[in-house]
Structure formats: C-alpha cells, structure tokens
Predict the structure.
Amino acid sequence: MSSKAQPEVTIRTATLEDGPACGRICYDAFSTEAGFGLLSMMFSTPGFYAVVAESDGRIVGSNVLVEQAVIHGVGPITIDPRLQNAGVGRKLMQAVMDRANRNGAAGMRLVQAAFHNRSLSLYASLGFDIREPLSCMQGRTRERSIPGCVVRSAQPADDVACIGLSRRVHGFDRGAELAQAIREGTARVVERGDRVTGYTTNLGFFGHSTAETNIDMQALLTSVESFAGPGILVPSRNSALLRWCLANGLGVVQPMTLMSTGLYSDPAGAWLPSIVF
Ligand SMILES: CC(C)(COP(=O)(O)OP(=O)(O)OC[C@H]1O[C@@H](n2cnc3c(N)ncnc32)[C@H](O)[C@@H]1OP(=O)(O)O)[C@@H](O)C(=O)NCCC(=O)NCCS
C-alpha cells in the first residue's frame, strides 16, 4: 500500500517543451545534471516515446520507452521527490507498458538501481523479473591491449557483422542504436583473426557492448581511457570478466539489476547492457 493519499494525476505524451521541467525533477531525484540534456533529447527524437504525469497543472514526473529494437527499454523514470510513493510511478510505468504492448514489442527491459527498495517493489509487482545482477564499474584498465585483438572505430559497413553477432548472442539486434552510434563516432569494433568478434555503441552508461568471448570484451575495455558517465555495467555473474576488471584496477561504483518482461533468453556470449538495457 502507498503511504500517501493518491493525488489526481493525468498522463500524457511528453513534448520538447516539457524537457526543462522533467530535467529539474530528474536532477532533484538523482542529484545529477545529466537529466536536462538527456530528457530533452529523448522527448524530441524518433524511437523514444516519452510520457509526463501532471497534477494540479504541474508536471510531477516522466518516463521514457525506448522503441528502437524488438525489445523495448524503459527509463529513465523520475517522480518529483515530494510526490514519490503516491502511485505516480505506477501510472507512468503502466503507460509505457501499454504502449509497448500496442507496438507488439517482444519484451521490455530496464536497469534498476539495486539499493532502491521502492523501484524494485514497483517493477517486480508490475511483472518484471530479475534477470541479472550488474556491477557499475569505472576506471582505466591497467592492461592497454589484448594480444591477438585489434580495436578500431566502427564504420557503416560493419553493421552486417555487428547485427549478426547481436542476433547470435541475444537473439535480436539493436541495429538502430548501432547506426546512430556509428554516425556519432562512439561505436567501436574488435577484430580477431580478421573478423569482427565484438562491438560497442559506447563504453559507458549509455552504450551497450556485445562480443563472442570475454577476450573480445576485454580488448574493447582496454581501448579507452575511461568509461562515459558513471561507468560500464558488468554482469556480476560473469565471474571471469568481473575478476579481470577488478585485477585491472576498475572500481565498483554501485550494484544494479537488469529486469525484464516478455521474451528473454540468456545471452550466449559476453555482453554489457546500457543503463536502459
Ligand atoms: C522509483 C520511482 C520511479 C517510483 O515511483 P513512485 O511514484 O514513488 O512509486 P509508486 O507509489 O507508484 O509505487 C511504489 C510501490 O512500491 C511499494 N513500495 C514502496 N516501498 C516499498 C518497500 N520497501 N517494500 C515493498 N513495497 C514498497 C509501494 O507501496 C507502491 O506499491 P503499490 O502501488 O502496490 O501501492 C520514484 O520513487 C523515483 O522517482 N525515485 C527516484 C528516482 C529513481 O530511483 N528512479 C528509478 C531508478 S531504477
């Protein structure tokens, strides 16, 4: 049961003009500046479906559905701290889940901050299953390359190999995100034996990475000076990769949890999800 009386709340599609108000709430909820630019981008870019909650004519929260793949991603969701635990988050989650169902999405995924009792309870009660404990990690690897692996910037012509790899490892591809990352210059591939054996859209919070083996993933990780945002998300049950990261001097920033509804199969390879999934 929620501890407060439920306020009158309406949910509507977000517009670009809502960006600053939602960015402010995101700042108040997470104490980070990142929300301002991020939400404005998500509210105005095709492939993102954003909703806001209004109460008494005032925006009190927002949520985003990332619709770029057959699996949709949820987040960030943030509620005005003064109205948390009063049912607003549940309405905003239901709105994007309804939308994903209308889209015919095969499933939905999100990354939950593991310490947060309320978000865990909310997502689990809405039908999200816990799939993977994650360790957000930051730092610079002591090893600066992996023998036999070459890492280079991804080119448009790499998309066939990367899409095929993603389908083999995850059962679906994230070609739209990859294409965007190649355009923006953040995507990299690793080659071993003259073949693409891994790719990343960005080594950091907002990128995902997929590789055939831990060796390929390690090569990607050694190729940068630091990870964007708070860090990379390492599946904690990949003990060999987690221990390699620790031995290479990376620090754990915070534990997180990958959750999903609908289609999910255990990945058949090495992978790092983004903060969305
Ligand atoms: C997490 C967040 C989005 C949830 O939204 P909210 O409006 O506060 O949550 P709601 O009131 O809709 O739902 C919370 C549910 O969890 C339940 N709950 C809260 N704490 C609980 C606990 N410790 N144990 C069990 N259930 C709990 C509530 O009773 C409620 O369930 P109900 O709908 O069945 O009554 C919001 O609190 C927030 O913005 N937090 C800060 C930012 C953040 O952490 N975002 C998510 C990162 S993963």
Observations:
- Helices lie at 19-30, 34-44, 88-103, 117-125, 159-170, 175-184, 214-222, 239-247.
